Amino acid sequence: MRDVRFLSLMTGLAIAVGGCSQRVAYMSYPTAGSPYASPGVDSVVYGTGGPYVPAPAAAAYRPPYAAPVAPVPVAMASAPAAPPPVAPPPVAPVIAPVSYAGPRYAPVAAVPPVVAAPYALAATANPGEYTLDSGDRLRIVVFGQEGLTNAYLVDAGGLIDMPLIGLVHARGASTDELAARISAKLRDGYIREPHVAVEVEAYRPFFILGEVTAPGQYPYVANMTAETAVAIAGGFSPRAFRRNLIVNRNYNGHPVRMTVPLTFPLRPGDTVSVQERWF
């Protein structure tokens, strides 16, 4: 009984070893270029093998297929573009002098432009000779005629009233023009050769309005300027615009409005307006 068990054990062991040798033989296949195949373990154990049988020649080794790689084009740096041609500057055409067969004329000098001053009307409204108007007090002397020599006031109508000759128009006239008018009337049936002299005894007042301390009417002072008029009226108020003034003047019965500086000379009867400062 013991022998039977031992024999069964050995048989099973042989079978197991044979199965493993078959797997080993299967995995131990000849490599490329080997002329013989390796014998299995069963052939050795059981004697079923024989001499080595040449194995079929292995196929030549080929590497795995790889698709050809197309060469990558290399971008070559192109040469920089040439700058556009620069056009040469225009050349002024040369004009040949033209000769004229006729007479030659001398060139006329250019007249400089006339630039108007801010108070350009002052030249028109400020004549060299003083003209009379309402409010002027005159001293009229008729030589040899004490009854006619006296002080006369130019009234609101611009007239003076004298004995014998009556009313004489004085507005807009100078002292010499008024003396000639009086002489013409006296010569007409009163005095054969009259000699008349006229002078201003008191000028008519001026007026100042606007931003001054005491606006109103003031007697005219000889050689007065706009700044002097402001000083007579007590000076500027705190809100006065002190750079320019507005002057209104009557010239030959026509009103003239001017923007003048402080140094502008005034005339009797002028109205000075001091503007308000807004900033």
Number of strands: 10
Fraction of helical residues? 10-25%
Weakly predicted, low-confidence segments: 20-38, 96-127
Radius of gyration: 68 Å
- Main sheet: strands, sense, barrel: 5 strands, mixed
Average pLDDT over all residues: 73
Would you give the CATH topology of the domain at 125-202?
Answer: wza like fold
CATH architecture assignment of the domain at 125-202: 2-Layer Sandwich
Task: Please state how the strands of the largest beta sheet are arranged side by side.
Answer: 7-6-10-8-9
Decide which structural class fits the backbone.
alpha+beta
Tell me the series of helices and strands, N- to C-terminal.
HHHEEEEHEEEHEEE
Walk me through this protein's architecture.
With 279 residues, the protein is of the alpha+beta class. Among the domains are: 45 residues; 78 residues, wza like fold (2-Layer Sandwich); 69 residues, Outer membrane lipoprotein wza fold like (Roll), CATH 3.10.560. Helix content is 20%, strand content 18%. The protein is built from five helices and ten strands; from the N terminus they run αααββββαβββαβββ. The strands form three sheets. A five-stranded mixed beta sheet has the order 7-6-10-8-9. A hairpin with a 3-residue loop joins strand 3 and strand 4. The longest helix has 26 residues. It starts with a helix and ends in a 5-residue tail after the last strand.
